[in-house]
Amino acid sequence: MPIRMEKTLKELAELVGGEAAGNGDALIKGVAPLESAVHGDITFIINSRYAAALSTTTASAVIVPPDMKVADRNLIVAKNPQLAYAKILILFASKPLPPKGVDKRAFIGRGPRIGKEVSVYPYAHIGDNVAIGDGTVIHSGAHIGDGCRIGERVVIYPNATIRDGCIIGDRVIIHPGAVIGSDGFGYAREGKRHFKIPQVGIVQIDDDVEIGANTTVDRAAFGKTWIKRGTKIDNLVQVAHNVTIGEDSIIVAQAGIAGSSKLGNNVILAGQVAVSDHLTIGDEVMVGGQSGVISDIPDKQVMSGYPAIPHREWLKASATFSKLPEMRKEIKELEKKVAELENILKAS
């Protein structure tokens, strides 16, 4: 639950790098979405399409873009209202908790190196020779395998699993049920049978990464599967062995990335995107939902469909798809007329 606090409009504007308009001394006591904000709350509007809501909301202040200044309202004018709103929400929602220490009901293996102000909840399992950085929180039921290195201010939620030897950077969030370092899916054929190839690599997750609930990141066959700084991965995502995902990328729910593919920085994969193995996807690529990527994609492309093609081409193809039954009928009629003309020509 949010803690109780009060901030002036001016203080909040300074926090987000915005400009306070109206009464800078107005007290803000909470944060709420536009449709439910009341007196004492601050809310936000993304763009001018929602300008009419300024006259109806009872919120004490509204975060708006630069083209929406209104003389009779308390405002924070920000280039990115959604980002400003998020920063203010973090401030109001933060609830600092004193570190709990290591609960006696947690299992701690041999040779741990546990930093300052660490919290390990009941029934967490910490293997041998694990290093845990300052301020990290490990919730009940989480499993940390032997030899793992966990950074500072990491949060590992209940029933998440980090298997042996994996490396987790600072300020990483791993949600419930996520599995980091499960075996990569590698087999060799022996006649009609499948012979398991040992997966002896690790997973490395860099600073400020977030891993969603029930997402799996497989360990490498050799070397490492690597999630780079700032990337955010949604729930129910599959990242296969030896995949590399660049910095500040977004991977949305139910996406799957097959083995040894390399994604650049600032890549966005929408929901249920499938990426085939051993591909390279460049920087700043966006792939639309339910697309299938079966070939390399250069930098700064927007792709959709299966197989994934440039988005504008996919839109044209999609528009054509609904007309295919009619076009098929017309082609059949044309074929019939052509056949009739050919018969006439033969008869003459």
Note down, in words, how this protein is organized.
This protein has 348 residues and is an alpha/beta fold. It has two domains: 7-93, Udp-n-acetylmuramoylalanyl-d-glutamate--2,6- Diaminopimelate Ligase, Chain: A, domain 1 (3-Layer(aba) Sandwich); 101-312, UDP N-Acetylglucosamine Acyltransferase, domain 1 (3 Solenoid), CATH 2.160.10.10. It contains four helices and 40 strands. Strands 8-11-14-17-20-25-28-31-34-37-39-40 form a twelve-stranded mixed sheet, covered by helices on one side. The chain is flat and about 100 Å long. The model has no long low-confidence stretch (mean pLDDT 94).
CATH class label of the largest domain: Mainly Beta
Q: How would you classify the helix and strand content by structural class?
A: alpha/beta
Per DSSP, the total helix count is: 4
CATH architecture of the largest domain: 3 Solenoid
- Tell me the strand order in the biggest sheet: 8-11-14-17-20-25-28-31-34-37-39-40
Helix content: 10-25%
**C-alpha Rg (nearest Å):** 27 Å
Distance between the termini: 90 Å
Topology of this structure?
Layout: E1 7-8, H1 9-16, E2 19-21, E3 27-28, E4 30-31, E5 41-44, E6 61-64, E7 75-77, H2 81-93, E8 101-102, E9 107-108, E10 113-114, E11 119-120, E12 125-126, E13 131-132, E14 137-138, E15 143-144, E16 149-150, E17 155-156, E18 161-162, E19 167-168, E20 173-174, E21 179-182, E22 187-190, E23 193-196, E24 202-205, E25 210-211, E26 216-218, E27 224-227, E28 232-233, E29 238-239, E30 244-245, E31 250-251, E32 256-257, E33 262-263, E34 268-269, E35 274-275, E36 280-281, E37 286-287, E38 292-293, E39 302-304, E40 309-310, H3 311-321, H4 324-347
Parallel strand pairs: 4-5, 5-6, 6-7, 8-11, 9-12, 10-13, 11-14, 12-15, 13-16, 14-17, 15-18, 16-19, 17-20, 18-21, 19-24, 20-25, 21-26, 24-27, 25-28, 26-29, 27-30, 28-31, 29-32, 30-33, 31-34, 32-35, 33-36, 34-37, 35-38, 37-39
Antiparallel strand pairs: 1-3, 2-7, 22-23, 39-40
